[in-house]
Design brief:
The chain contains four helices and no strands. The chain has helices at 2-22, 24-43, 45-66, 71-79. Helix 2 crosses helix 3 (45-66). The longest helix is centred in the C-terminal third of the chain and has 22 residues, at 45-66. It starts with a helix and ends with a helix.
Amino acid sequence: MRGFWLKIEEKISQSLVWALDNHPGKLLGTSIGFILGLLFVTLGFWRTLVLVLCAVIGFVLGKRQDEHKDLSAWVEKTFNKY
């Protein structure tokens, strides 16, 4: 029985690698859509919206940090427009 599950695991791994190589956008979009759908069903619309907003803000701040850009100057420029 163990051999059966190893074959299944190998097939799934091969399929996932193939999908990542040939259709990364479709795989990413489908995964994000599936996760958002689950969040809508379990948390509701507004809680999911807040969660996604926090994730986007975290992504933007992390991206700026990875690119070695000054976060404090960006925050001042963004929030002190007036």
